[in-house]
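Title: Prediction job returns without error message
Component: structure pipeline
Severity: low
Priority: P3
Assignee: unassigned

Description:
Job completed but the reporter wants confirmation the result is attached to the right record. Sequence as submitted:
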Amino acid sequence: MGPTSRGPVTATELKAEMERRLAEDLEYRAKVERLEAERVRQLRATEAPVVEDLAGAGIDVSTVWDLRKRPESRAVAIPILLNHLTRDYPDGVLEGVGQGLDDRTARDRWRELKDLYLRTERPVVRDRLAAALSDCAVKRHYEDLLALLANTDLGDTRIYFLRPVNRIGNRMSPGAGRAVVESWTDDPVLGKEASAILNGRGPND
């Protein structure tokens, strides 16, 4: 009985079928591997200007994604990454550039990160900047976090700010951060994450 006769195929079923074909169909697996190799080749060629600028600063990586393996290089890399994050790269490159900013050494560039976050029209850039802001936020950024949470134009990227608001707010005054998070539990965008935080669940639970 085919998928149509028993209703829509779920994402889990599609994944299982792909894994089965990869394991059993050598021709299909070879085709998938060729396509993936070509995708990676094109991505490397497109991100070459970023990699070259990093090399010029003494950071030798074959791809910007390798910065996660070089935590000691982040402070030097961050101004280079911010420069390239404003350029017209494909999303795959911008995501790699943005993940390099997700480090506490970016804290001194909070204002620059925030301004670019508010200004960008690229969803992938906004997502990565929200993650970076969330990771490096400390007490002096608390009011900024509250303002960003309230800015509905920023869409679902505001989810990143709930956990630092909870953490920092509670340290400033017992229960203060939790009270803010509670105020978002009925929100259609932030409600699920807010409830998870209040129930003590991690971001991937």
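Comment from assignee: result matches the submitted record. The mean pLDDT is 88.
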